[in-house]
Sequence to fold (516 residues):
Amino acid sequence: MRKINVFDTTLRDGEQSPGVSLNFEEKVEIGKQLERLGTDIIEAGFPASSKGDFEAVKRISDLVSDSSVTGLSRSLQKDIDVSWEALKNGAEPRLHVFLATSPVHMKYKLGMTPDQVVENAVESVKYARQRFPKVQFSAEDACRSDWDFLVRITEQVIDAGAEVINLPDTVGYITPAEIQEMFTYMKENVRNIEKANLSAHCHDDLGMAVANSLAAVEGGADQVECAINGIGERAGNASLEEIAVALHIRGDYYKAKTDLTLNEVKRTSALVSRVTGMQVPNNKAVVGDNAFAHESGIHQDGMLKEKSTYEIITPELVGVSSNRMVLGKHSGRHAFVEKLKELGYHNTTEEEVKRVFTAFKALADKKKEVSDEDIFALMTEEKLDSSTAHYELQSLQVNYGTHNIPTAALTVAAPDGEVVEEAATGSGSVEAVYNTIERIVGDAITLKDYRIQSITGGEDALAEVFVTVRLNDEEAPGRGTAHDVLEASAKAYIHAVNRILSRRAEGMETAETLEV
Ligand SMILES: CC(=O)SCCNC(=O)CCNC(=O)[C@H](O)C(C)(C)COP(=O)(O)OP(=O)(O)OC[C@H]1O[C@@H](n2cnc3c(N)ncnc32)[C@H](O)[C@@H]1OP(=O)(O)O
Ligand SMILES: CC(C)C(=O)C(=O)O
Fold:
Protein backbone atom coordinates (compact mmCIF):
# COMPACT_ATOMS: atom_id res chain seq x y z
CA MET A 1 0.00 0.00 0.00
CA ARG A 2 1.35 3.41 -0.99
CA LYS A 3 1.14 6.03 1.81
CA ILE A 4 -0.68 9.20 0.73
CA ASN A 5 0.13 12.35 2.70
CA VAL A 6 -2.92 14.29 3.83
CA PHE A 7 -2.43 18.06 3.62
CA ASP A 8 -5.29 19.77 5.40
CA THR A 9 -6.15 23.29 4.29
CA THR A 10 -9.27 23.88 6.40
CA LEU A 11 -7.57 26.76 8.19
CA ARG A 12 -6.33 28.44 4.99
CA ASP A 13 -8.41 27.65 1.88
CA GLY A 14 -11.29 26.48 4.13
CA GLU A 15 -11.33 29.84 5.84
CA GLN A 16 -11.57 31.46 2.38
CA SER A 17 -15.22 30.20 2.33
CA PRO A 18 -17.41 33.25 1.90
CA GLY A 19 -18.88 34.20 5.28
CA VAL A 20 -16.27 32.35 7.35
CA SER A 21 -13.78 34.15 9.56
CA LEU A 22 -12.14 32.30 12.43
CA ASN A 23 -10.66 34.00 15.45
CA PHE A 24 -7.38 33.03 17.11
CA GLU A 25 -8.86 30.59 19.64
CA GLU A 26 -11.06 28.91 17.02
CA LYS A 27 -8.12 28.37 14.67
CA VAL A 28 -5.97 26.95 17.45
CA GLU A 29 -8.77 24.59 18.56
CA ILE A 30 -9.20 23.27 15.03
CA GLY A 31 -5.40 22.99 14.64
CA LYS A 32 -5.17 20.79 17.74
CA GLN A 33 -8.03 18.59 16.51
CA LEU A 34 -6.39 18.22 13.08
CA GLU A 35 -3.27 16.96 14.85
CA ARG A 36 -5.43 14.43 16.76
CA LEU A 37 -6.93 13.35 13.45
CA GLY A 38 -3.42 12.62 12.25
CA THR A 39 -3.16 14.94 9.24
CA ASP A 40 0.40 14.91 7.92
CA ILE A 41 0.47 18.62 7.11
CA ILE A 42 -1.68 21.42 8.52
CA GLU A 43 -1.85 24.57 6.44
CA ALA A 44 -2.62 26.91 9.31
CA GLY A 45 -3.12 30.11 7.31
CA PHE A 46 -1.55 32.83 5.18
CA PRO A 47 0.77 34.63 7.63
CA ALA A 48 1.31 37.74 5.47
CA SER A 49 -2.41 38.31 5.02
CA SER A 50 -3.13 39.75 8.48
CA LYS A 51 -1.75 40.11 11.98
CA GLY A 52 -4.47 37.75 13.29
CA ASP A 53 -3.57 35.04 10.80
CA PHE A 54 0.13 35.49 11.57
CA GLU A 55 -0.52 35.01 15.31
CA ALA A 56 -2.74 31.95 14.78
CA VAL A 57 -0.24 30.27 12.41
CA LYS A 58 2.55 30.98 14.89
CA ARG A 59 0.60 29.56 17.83
CA ILE A 60 -0.42 26.40 15.96
CA SER A 61 3.12 25.92 14.67
CA ASP A 62 4.53 26.28 18.20
CA LEU A 63 1.91 23.96 19.69
CA VAL A 64 1.62 21.11 17.19
CA SER A 65 4.35 18.51 17.07
CA ASP A 66 2.81 15.44 15.43
CA SER A 67 1.87 17.20 12.18
CA SER A 68 4.01 19.46 10.03
CA VAL A 69 2.60 23.01 10.04
CA THR A 70 2.80 25.21 6.95
CA GLY A 71 1.68 28.65 5.81
CA LEU A 72 0.93 30.04 2.36
CA SER A 73 3.05 32.74 0.70
CA ARG A 74 2.93 34.59 -2.56
CA SER A 75 6.09 34.38 -4.59
CA LEU A 76 7.43 37.46 -2.84
CA GLN A 77 10.35 37.75 -0.42
CA LYS A 78 8.31 39.83 2.04
CA ASP A 79 5.60 37.12 2.28
CA ILE A 80 8.26 34.43 2.75
CA ASP A 81 9.96 36.45 5.51
CA VAL A 82 6.69 36.87 7.39
CA SER A 83 5.93 33.15 7.03
CA TRP A 84 9.36 32.29 8.41
CA GLU A 85 8.73 34.44 11.48
CA ALA A 86 5.44 32.60 12.06
CA LEU A 87 6.75 29.09 11.45
CA LYS A 88 10.41 29.08 12.50
CA ASN A 89 9.84 27.54 15.95
CA GLY A 90 7.73 24.67 14.67
CA ALA A 91 8.71 21.01 14.82
CA GLU A 92 9.01 20.80 11.03
CA PRO A 93 8.65 24.26 9.44
CA ARG A 94 7.54 24.12 5.86
CA LEU A 95 6.71 26.86 3.38
CA HIS A 96 3.99 26.72 0.75
CA VAL A 97 4.81 29.21 -1.99
CA PHE A 98 2.67 29.60 -5.10
CA LEU A 99 2.67 31.31 -8.48
CA ALA A 100 0.17 30.92 -11.29
CA THR A 101 1.15 29.10 -14.48
CA SER A 102 -1.95 29.19 -16.69
CA PRO A 103 -1.93 31.58 -19.68
CA VAL A 104 -4.93 33.53 -18.37
CA HIS A 105 -3.47 34.03 -14.88
CA MET A 106 0.03 34.89 -16.12
CA LYS A 107 -1.20 37.42 -18.68
CA TYR A 108 -4.08 39.15 -16.89
CA LYS A 109 -3.53 38.66 -13.17
CA LEU A 110 0.24 38.71 -12.84
CA GLY A 111 1.14 40.64 -16.00
CA MET A 112 4.17 38.35 -16.42
CA THR A 113 5.55 36.32 -19.32
CA PRO A 114 6.04 32.56 -18.86
CA ASP A 115 9.82 33.11 -18.66
CA GLN A 116 9.37 35.70 -15.90
CA VAL A 117 7.09 33.29 -13.99
CA VAL A 118 9.73 30.53 -14.11
CA GLU A 119 12.47 32.94 -13.07
CA ASN A 120 10.40 34.39 -10.22
CA ALA A 121 9.34 30.95 -8.93
CA VAL A 122 12.92 29.67 -8.91
CA GLU A 123 14.13 32.76 -7.07
CA SER A 124 11.43 32.38 -4.40
CA VAL A 125 12.08 28.70 -3.84
CA LYS A 126 15.84 29.35 -3.52
CA TYR A 127 15.17 32.22 -1.12
CA ALA A 128 12.77 30.09 0.95
CA ARG A 129 15.22 27.19 1.12
CA GLN A 130 17.75 29.47 2.82
CA ARG A 131 15.33 29.33 5.79
CA PHE A 132 12.90 26.47 5.52
CA PRO A 133 14.03 22.83 5.57
CA LYS A 134 11.04 21.94 3.39
CA VAL A 135 9.43 23.95 0.59
CA GLN A 136 6.34 23.17 -1.43
CA PHE A 137 5.74 24.98 -4.72
CA SER A 138 2.20 25.28 -6.15
CA ALA A 139 1.64 26.04 -9.82
CA GLU A 140 -1.66 27.86 -9.35
CA ASP A 141 -4.28 26.97 -11.99
CA ALA A 142 -2.07 24.06 -13.13
CA CYS A 143 -5.04 22.21 -14.58
CA ARG A 144 -5.54 24.97 -17.17
CA SER A 145 -1.80 25.28 -17.82
CA ASP A 146 0.24 23.94 -20.72
CA TRP A 147 1.63 20.55 -19.63
CA ASP A 148 5.07 21.11 -21.16
CA PHE A 149 5.30 24.47 -19.39
CA LEU A 150 4.39 22.66 -16.16
CA VAL A 151 7.18 20.14 -16.82
CA ARG A 152 9.64 23.00 -17.38
CA ILE A 153 8.77 25.00 -14.24
CA THR A 154 8.55 21.84 -12.11
CA GLU A 155 12.06 20.69 -13.12
CA GLN A 156 13.48 24.12 -12.32
CA VAL A 157 11.83 24.59 -8.92
CA ILE A 158 12.91 21.05 -7.94
CA ASP A 159 16.46 22.00 -8.90
CA ALA A 160 16.01 25.12 -6.72
CA GLY A 161 15.09 22.96 -3.73
CA ALA A 162 11.30 22.37 -3.76
CA GLU A 163 10.44 18.90 -2.48
CA VAL A 164 6.69 18.97 -3.05
CA ILE A 165 5.08 20.14 -6.29
CA ASN A 166 1.38 20.85 -6.09
CA LEU A 167 -0.69 20.93 -9.29
CA PRO A 168 -3.95 22.55 -8.22
CA ASP A 169 -7.25 22.53 -10.06
CA THR A 170 -7.76 26.08 -8.81
CA VAL A 171 -11.11 26.64 -10.53
CA GLY A 172 -12.52 23.08 -10.38
CA TYR A 173 -12.38 22.67 -14.17
CA ILE A 174 -10.65 19.34 -14.87
CA THR A 175 -12.24 15.87 -15.12
CA PRO A 176 -11.01 12.69 -13.38
CA ALA A 177 -9.64 11.09 -16.58
CA GLU A 178 -7.78 14.28 -17.51
CA ILE A 179 -6.17 14.85 -14.10
CA GLN A 180 -5.04 11.23 -13.92
CA GLU A 181 -3.44 11.62 -17.35
CA MET A 182 -1.83 14.93 -16.31
CA PHE A 183 -0.21 13.43 -13.20
CA THR A 184 0.96 10.42 -15.20
CA TYR A 185 2.44 12.81 -17.80
CA MET A 186 4.32 14.72 -15.11
CA LYS A 187 5.65 11.52 -13.56
CA GLU A 188 6.89 10.33 -16.94
CA ASN A 189 8.32 13.61 -18.25
CA VAL A 190 9.81 15.62 -15.35
CA ARG A 191 13.48 14.53 -15.46
CA ASN A 192 14.13 15.00 -11.68
CA ILE A 193 10.69 13.89 -10.42
CA GLU A 194 12.24 11.31 -8.03
CA LYS A 195 13.45 14.26 -5.86
CA ALA A 196 9.92 15.52 -5.19
CA ASN A 197 6.43 14.44 -4.23
CA LEU A 198 3.45 15.42 -6.39
CA SER A 199 0.36 16.86 -4.74
CA ALA A 200 -3.26 17.43 -5.87
CA HIS A 201 -5.44 20.32 -4.66
CA CYS A 202 -8.91 20.15 -6.21
CA HIS A 203 -11.86 22.52 -6.07
CA ASP A 204 -15.48 21.47 -6.33
CA ASP A 205 -16.97 23.89 -8.86
CA LEU A 206 -18.24 20.99 -11.01
CA GLY A 207 -18.76 18.66 -8.05
CA MET A 208 -15.70 16.55 -8.97
CA ALA A 209 -13.13 17.58 -6.33
CA VAL A 210 -13.04 14.24 -4.50
CA ALA A 211 -13.19 12.18 -7.71
CA ASN A 212 -10.41 14.31 -9.19
CA SER A 213 -8.21 13.96 -6.08
CA LEU A 214 -8.61 10.18 -6.16
CA ALA A 215 -7.89 10.12 -9.89
CA ALA A 216 -4.74 12.16 -9.24
CA VAL A 217 -3.69 9.49 -6.73
CA GLU A 218 -4.20 6.91 -9.47
CA GLY A 219 -1.99 9.06 -11.72
CA GLY A 220 0.79 9.07 -9.10
CA ALA A 221 0.00 11.90 -6.63
CA ASP A 222 1.70 11.32 -3.27
CA GLN A 223 -0.25 14.00 -1.41
CA VAL A 224 -3.86 15.23 -1.41
CA GLU A 225 -4.87 18.70 -0.23
CA CYS A 226 -8.33 18.87 1.21
CA ALA A 227 -10.54 20.48 3.85
CA ILE A 228 -12.84 19.16 6.54
CA ASN A 229 -16.46 19.11 5.30
CA GLY A 230 -15.12 20.21 1.89
CA ILE A 231 -15.20 23.89 2.83
CA GLY A 232 -13.16 26.42 0.88
CA GLU A 233 -13.15 29.15 -1.75
CA ARG A 234 -16.43 29.25 -3.83
CA ALA A 235 -17.87 25.69 -3.97
CA GLY A 236 -15.11 24.47 -1.68
CA ASN A 237 -12.20 22.05 -1.67
CA ALA A 238 -12.14 18.29 -1.86
CA SER A 239 -13.56 16.93 1.38
CA LEU A 240 -10.88 15.33 3.54
CA GLU A 241 -13.21 12.78 5.12
CA GLU A 242 -14.53 11.56 1.78
CA ILE A 243 -11.06 11.05 0.30
CA ALA A 244 -9.76 9.35 3.45
CA VAL A 245 -12.69 6.97 3.78
CA ALA A 246 -12.71 6.20 0.03
CA LEU A 247 -9.03 5.23 0.24
CA HIS A 248 -9.73 3.12 3.33
CA ILE A 249 -12.80 1.32 2.01
CA ARG A 250 -11.43 0.93 -1.56
CA GLY A 251 -7.79 0.31 -0.67
CA ASP A 252 -8.17 -2.85 -2.75
CA TYR A 253 -8.62 -0.61 -5.81
CA TYR A 254 -6.39 2.39 -5.08
CA LYS A 255 -3.60 0.38 -3.42
CA ALA A 256 -3.05 3.45 -1.25
CA LYS A 257 -3.77 4.48 2.31
CA THR A 258 -3.55 7.41 4.70
CA ASP A 259 -2.30 7.41 8.31
CA LEU A 260 -5.35 9.26 9.63
CA THR A 261 -7.07 8.22 12.86
CA LEU A 262 -10.39 7.76 11.12
CA ASN A 263 -12.50 7.56 14.26
CA GLU A 264 -11.68 11.24 14.87
CA VAL A 265 -13.40 12.19 11.60
CA LYS A 266 -16.93 12.83 12.88
CA ARG A 267 -15.73 14.86 15.84
CA THR A 268 -13.48 16.99 13.61
CA SER A 269 -16.34 17.57 11.18
CA ALA A 270 -18.68 18.62 14.00
CA LEU A 271 -16.09 21.01 15.43
CA VAL A 272 -15.45 22.68 12.07
CA SER A 273 -19.16 22.93 11.36
CA ARG A 274 -19.88 24.50 14.74
CA VAL A 275 -17.01 26.95 14.65
CA THR A 276 -17.45 28.07 11.03
CA GLY A 277 -21.27 28.07 11.19
CA MET A 278 -21.30 26.08 7.92
CA GLN A 279 -23.84 23.32 8.44
CA VAL A 280 -23.11 19.85 7.13
CA PRO A 281 -25.97 18.76 4.82
CA ASN A 282 -27.85 15.70 6.14
CA ASN A 283 -27.02 13.69 3.04
CA LYS A 284 -23.30 14.53 3.03
CA ALA A 285 -21.16 11.41 2.56
CA VAL A 286 -19.39 10.08 5.69
CA VAL A 287 -20.31 12.90 8.11
CA GLY A 288 -23.91 13.86 7.24
CA ASP A 289 -26.62 13.00 9.77
CA ASN A 290 -28.16 10.53 7.33
CA ALA A 291 -24.90 8.82 6.35
CA PHE A 292 -25.69 5.90 8.66
CA ALA A 293 -29.49 6.16 8.80
CA HIS A 294 -31.79 3.67 7.09
CA GLU A 295 -35.45 4.48 6.49
CA SER A 296 -36.99 2.13 3.98
CA GLY A 297 -38.47 -1.22 4.99
CA ILE A 298 -36.48 -3.31 2.51
CA HIS A 299 -33.18 -1.71 3.57
CA GLN A 300 -34.01 -2.00 7.29
CA ASP A 301 -34.96 -5.66 6.84
CA GLY A 302 -31.63 -6.26 5.02
CA MET A 303 -29.68 -4.42 7.73
CA LEU A 304 -31.32 -6.50 10.48
CA LYS A 305 -30.38 -9.69 8.66
CA GLU A 306 -26.83 -8.68 7.64
CA LYS A 307 -25.44 -5.15 7.94
CA SER A 308 -23.21 -5.41 4.89
CA THR A 309 -26.30 -5.63 2.68
CA TYR A 310 -26.69 -1.86 2.84
CA GLU A 311 -23.69 -0.47 4.75
CA ILE A 312 -20.20 -0.27 3.22
CA ILE A 313 -18.80 1.97 5.99
CA THR A 314 -19.34 1.09 9.64
CA PRO A 315 -20.34 4.13 11.71
CA GLU A 316 -17.69 3.23 14.30
CA LEU A 317 -14.96 3.63 11.65
CA VAL A 318 -15.47 7.39 11.58
CA GLY A 319 -16.43 7.85 15.23
CA VAL A 320 -20.22 7.68 14.95
CA SER A 321 -21.62 5.57 17.80
CA SER A 322 -24.10 3.53 15.78
CA ASN A 323 -26.27 3.45 12.73
CA ARG A 324 -29.85 4.64 12.94
CA MET A 325 -33.07 2.94 11.89
CA VAL A 326 -35.46 5.75 11.16
CA LEU A 327 -39.08 4.76 11.45
CA GLY A 328 -41.09 6.56 8.80
CA LYS A 329 -43.64 5.97 6.09
CA HIS A 330 -41.28 3.70 4.13
CA SER A 331 -40.50 1.41 7.06
CA GLY A 332 -41.69 -2.19 7.21
CA ARG A 333 -42.87 -4.65 9.84
CA HIS A 334 -39.41 -6.18 10.53
CA ALA A 335 -37.90 -2.86 11.62
CA PHE A 336 -41.06 -1.99 13.55
CA VAL A 337 -41.01 -5.23 15.56
CA GLU A 338 -37.29 -4.72 16.20
CA LYS A 339 -38.02 -1.23 17.54
CA LEU A 340 -40.75 -2.64 19.83
CA LYS A 341 -38.23 -5.11 21.26
CA GLU A 342 -35.65 -2.35 21.70
CA LEU A 343 -38.26 -0.39 23.66
CA GLY A 344 -38.91 -3.37 25.92
CA TYR A 345 -42.09 -4.79 24.32
CA HIS A 346 -41.03 -8.43 24.13
CA ASN A 347 -44.35 -10.22 24.54
CA THR A 348 -46.56 -8.50 22.01
CA THR A 349 -49.04 -10.74 20.25
CA GLU A 350 -49.30 -10.81 16.47
CA GLU A 351 -52.73 -9.15 16.74
CA GLU A 352 -51.31 -6.29 18.82
CA VAL A 353 -48.43 -5.78 16.42
CA LYS A 354 -50.86 -5.76 13.51
CA ARG A 355 -53.06 -3.09 15.09
CA VAL A 356 -50.22 -0.87 16.27
CA PHE A 357 -48.38 -1.23 12.97
CA THR A 358 -51.52 0.03 11.19
CA ALA A 359 -51.67 3.01 13.58
CA PHE A 360 -47.94 3.60 13.07
CA LYS A 361 -48.29 3.65 9.27
CA ALA A 362 -51.19 6.10 9.52
CA LEU A 363 -49.10 8.35 11.76
CA ALA A 364 -46.01 8.01 9.54
CA ASP A 365 -48.07 9.27 6.60
CA LYS A 366 -48.56 12.52 8.48
CA LYS A 367 -45.26 12.78 10.31
CA LYS A 368 -41.70 12.86 8.86
CA GLU A 369 -40.11 10.66 11.49
CA VAL A 370 -41.88 8.56 14.12
CA SER A 371 -39.96 8.83 17.38
CA ASP A 372 -39.57 6.37 20.25
CA GLU A 373 -41.96 8.53 22.29
CA ASP A 374 -44.58 8.26 19.52
CA ILE A 375 -44.28 4.48 19.57
CA PHE A 376 -44.58 4.42 23.36
CA ALA A 377 -47.79 6.43 23.00
CA LEU A 378 -49.20 4.11 20.34
CA MET A 379 -48.34 1.05 22.43
CA THR A 380 -49.83 2.61 25.57
CA GLU A 381 -53.05 3.22 23.68
CA GLU A 382 -53.04 -0.35 22.43
CA LYS A 383 -52.24 -1.93 25.81
CA LEU A 384 -54.46 0.20 27.99
CA ASP A 385 -57.33 1.15 25.74
CA SER A 386 -58.23 -1.91 23.68
CA SER A 387 -59.52 -3.58 26.86
CA THR A 388 -62.01 -0.75 27.44
CA ALA A 389 -63.17 -0.20 23.88
CA HIS A 390 -66.91 0.33 24.18
CA TYR A 391 -67.20 3.33 21.92
CA GLU A 392 -64.61 3.70 19.18
CA LEU A 393 -63.97 6.82 17.11
CA GLN A 394 -64.04 6.08 13.39
CA SER A 395 -63.98 9.51 11.82
CA LEU A 396 -64.24 13.15 12.73
CA GLN A 397 -64.86 16.34 10.83
CA VAL A 398 -64.89 19.81 12.31
CA ASN A 399 -66.01 22.98 10.64
CA TYR A 400 -64.50 26.08 12.22
CA GLY A 401 -64.26 29.69 11.09
CA THR A 402 -63.89 32.96 12.96
CA HIS A 403 -67.41 34.00 11.84
CA ASN A 404 -69.09 30.54 11.92
CA ILE A 405 -70.50 28.48 14.74
CA PRO A 406 -68.11 25.53 15.16
CA THR A 407 -69.75 22.28 14.09
CA ALA A 408 -68.48 18.72 14.53
CA ALA A 409 -69.60 15.55 12.77
CA LEU A 410 -68.41 12.20 14.17
CA THR A 411 -68.77 8.56 13.18
CA VAL A 412 -68.44 6.25 16.19
CA ALA A 413 -68.81 2.49 16.58
CA ALA A 414 -71.14 1.91 19.56
CA PRO A 415 -70.80 -0.97 22.10
CA ASP A 416 -73.50 -2.98 20.28
CA GLY A 417 -71.48 -2.76 17.03
CA GLU A 418 -73.77 -0.22 15.41
CA VAL A 419 -72.00 2.64 13.58
CA VAL A 420 -73.52 5.95 14.68
CA GLU A 421 -73.19 9.28 12.88
CA GLU A 422 -73.98 12.48 14.76
CA ALA A 423 -73.29 16.20 14.59
CA ALA A 424 -73.49 19.09 17.05
CA THR A 425 -72.33 22.66 17.51
CA GLY A 426 -70.38 24.28 20.33
CA SER A 427 -68.82 27.57 21.32
CA GLY A 428 -65.47 26.15 20.21
CA SER A 429 -64.28 23.17 18.14
CA VAL A 430 -63.52 20.96 21.15
CA GLU A 431 -66.89 21.70 22.68
CA ALA A 432 -68.62 20.87 19.37
CA VAL A 433 -66.80 17.51 19.37
CA TYR A 434 -67.76 16.83 22.99
CA ASN A 435 -71.40 17.80 22.45
CA THR A 436 -71.51 15.35 19.52
CA ILE A 437 -70.12 12.53 21.68
CA GLU A 438 -72.70 13.34 24.38
CA ARG A 439 -75.46 12.94 21.78
CA ILE A 440 -74.03 9.60 20.67
CA VAL A 441 -73.76 8.29 24.24
CA GLY A 442 -77.25 9.67 25.00
CA ASP A 443 -76.43 10.74 28.55
CA ALA A 444 -75.30 13.96 30.25
CA ILE A 445 -71.51 14.17 30.30
CA THR A 446 -69.58 16.96 32.01
CA LEU A 447 -65.99 17.87 31.23
CA LYS A 448 -64.20 18.44 34.57
CA ASP A 449 -60.63 18.86 33.37
CA TYR A 450 -58.80 19.21 30.05
CA ARG A 451 -55.02 19.28 29.46
CA ILE A 452 -52.97 19.02 26.31
CA GLN A 453 -49.28 18.42 25.61
CA SER A 454 -47.14 17.52 22.64
CA ILE A 455 -45.27 14.23 22.82
CA THR A 456 -42.27 15.27 20.75
CA GLY A 457 -41.14 18.67 19.52
CA GLY A 458 -41.73 20.16 16.10
CA GLU A 459 -44.74 21.11 14.01
CA ASP A 460 -45.67 17.53 13.26
CA ALA A 461 -45.52 16.30 16.88
CA LEU A 462 -48.15 13.96 18.30
CA ALA A 463 -50.67 15.64 20.60
CA GLU A 464 -51.68 14.01 23.88
CA VAL A 465 -54.87 15.13 25.62
CA PHE A 466 -55.85 14.28 29.20
CA VAL A 467 -59.42 14.82 30.41
CA THR A 468 -61.59 14.05 33.40
CA VAL A 469 -65.29 13.59 32.66
CA ARG A 470 -68.35 12.97 34.74
CA LEU A 471 -71.10 10.67 33.46
CA ASN A 472 -74.13 10.51 35.77
CA ASP A 473 -72.51 10.20 39.21
CA GLU A 474 -69.21 8.74 38.13
CA GLU A 475 -65.95 10.39 37.19
CA ALA A 476 -63.03 8.96 35.19
CA PRO A 477 -59.87 10.21 33.56
CA GLY A 478 -59.23 9.65 29.87
CA ARG A 479 -56.27 10.02 27.55
CA GLY A 480 -56.06 10.34 23.77
CA THR A 481 -53.13 10.57 21.37
CA ALA A 482 -53.29 11.67 17.77
CA HIS A 483 -51.49 13.75 15.22
CA ASP A 484 -54.33 16.24 15.37
CA VAL A 485 -55.40 18.07 18.53
CA LEU A 486 -59.15 17.62 17.92
CA GLU A 487 -58.80 13.92 17.21
CA ALA A 488 -56.73 13.51 20.39
CA SER A 489 -59.42 15.46 22.30
CA ALA A 490 -62.20 13.20 20.97
CA LYS A 491 -60.23 10.06 21.78
CA ALA A 492 -59.53 11.23 25.34
CA TYR A 493 -63.22 11.96 25.95
CA ILE A 494 -64.35 8.62 24.56
CA HIS A 495 -61.63 6.86 26.55
CA ALA A 496 -62.97 8.38 29.81
CA VAL A 497 -66.55 7.42 28.91
CA ASN A 498 -65.43 3.86 28.09
CA ARG A 499 -63.70 3.59 31.45
CA ILE A 500 -66.88 4.52 33.28
CA LEU A 501 -68.86 2.03 31.19
CA SER A 502 -66.24 -0.69 31.87
CA ARG A 503 -66.32 0.01 35.58
CA ARG A 504 -70.09 -0.29 35.52
CA ALA A 505 -69.93 -3.54 33.54
CA GLU A 506 -67.37 -4.96 36.00
CA GLY A 507 -69.59 -3.87 38.92
CA MET A 508 -72.57 -5.58 37.36
CA GLU A 509 -70.56 -8.73 36.76
CA THR A 510 -69.43 -8.72 40.39
CA ALA A 511 -73.02 -8.19 41.58
CA GLU A 512 -74.26 -11.00 39.34
CA THR A 513 -71.46 -13.27 40.56
CA LEU A 514 -72.32 -12.39 44.17
CA GLU A 515 -76.00 -13.15 43.59
CA VAL A 516 -75.02 -16.53 42.21
C1 LIG B 1 -5.84 30.17 -5.27
C2 LIG B 1 -5.73 30.74 -3.89
O1 LIG B 1 -6.53 30.37 -3.08
S1 LIG B 1 -4.53 31.83 -3.60
C3 LIG B 1 -4.73 32.37 -1.97
C4 LIG B 1 -5.83 33.33 -1.91
N1 LIG B 1 -5.96 33.82 -0.55
C5 LIG B 1 -5.99 35.10 -0.25
O2 LIG B 1 -5.88 35.96 -1.13
C6 LIG B 1 -6.26 35.45 1.16
C7 LIG B 1 -5.27 36.41 1.72
N2 LIG B 1 -5.03 37.56 0.88
C8 LIG B 1 -4.89 38.83 1.38
O3 LIG B 1 -5.03 39.08 2.56
C9 LIG B 1 -4.47 39.88 0.41
O4 LIG B 1 -4.92 39.56 -0.89
C10 LIG B 1 -2.91 40.05 0.42
C11 LIG B 1 -2.49 40.56 1.78
C12 LIG B 1 -2.22 38.72 0.16
C13 LIG B 1 -2.49 41.02 -0.66
O5 LIG B 1 -3.25 42.17 -0.52
P1 LIG B 1 -2.99 43.45 -1.46
O6 LIG B 1 -1.57 43.82 -1.37
O7 LIG B 1 -3.99 44.45 -1.06
O8 LIG B 1 -3.21 42.93 -2.97
P2 LIG B 1 -4.52 42.36 -3.66
O9 LIG B 1 -5.02 41.23 -2.90
O10 LIG B 1 -5.47 43.44 -3.99
O11 LIG B 1 -3.88 41.86 -5.05
C14 LIG B 1 -3.06 40.76 -5.07
C15 LIG B 1 -1.67 41.15 -5.63
O12 LIG B 1 -0.83 39.99 -5.46
C16 LIG B 1 -0.37 39.59 -6.74
N3 LIG B 1 -0.21 38.15 -6.71
C17 LIG B 1 -1.18 37.21 -6.80
N4 LIG B 1 -0.63 36.01 -6.66
C18 LIG B 1 0.68 36.19 -6.47
C19 LIG B 1 1.74 35.32 -6.25
N5 LIG B 1 1.53 34.01 -6.18
N6 LIG B 1 2.95 35.82 -6.09
C20 LIG B 1 3.18 37.17 -6.15
N7 LIG B 1 2.19 38.05 -6.34
C21 LIG B 1 0.96 37.55 -6.51
C22 LIG B 1 -1.40 40.08 -7.70
O13 LIG B 1 -0.94 40.13 -9.02
C23 LIG B 1 -1.67 41.44 -7.10
O14 LIG B 1 -0.58 42.24 -7.40
P3 LIG B 1 -0.66 43.79 -7.89
O15 LIG B 1 -1.10 44.53 -6.69
O16 LIG B 1 0.72 44.12 -8.29
O17 LIG B 1 -1.64 43.81 -9.02
C1 LIG C 1 -2.63 28.29 -3.48
C2 LIG C 1 -3.22 27.17 -4.23
C3 LIG C 1 -2.73 25.86 -3.74
C4 LIG C 1 -4.70 27.18 -4.15
O1 LIG C 1 -5.30 27.38 -3.11
C5 LIG C 1 -5.43 26.88 -5.36
O2 LIG C 1 -4.82 26.83 -6.44
O3 LIG C 1 -6.65 26.70 -5.28
In short: The chain has a mean pLDDT of 93. The radius of gyration is 34 Å. Residues 13, 16, 46, 48-49, 74-76, 98-99, 109-110, 140, 170, 233 surround acetyl coenzyme *A (ligand 1) (CB under 6 Å).
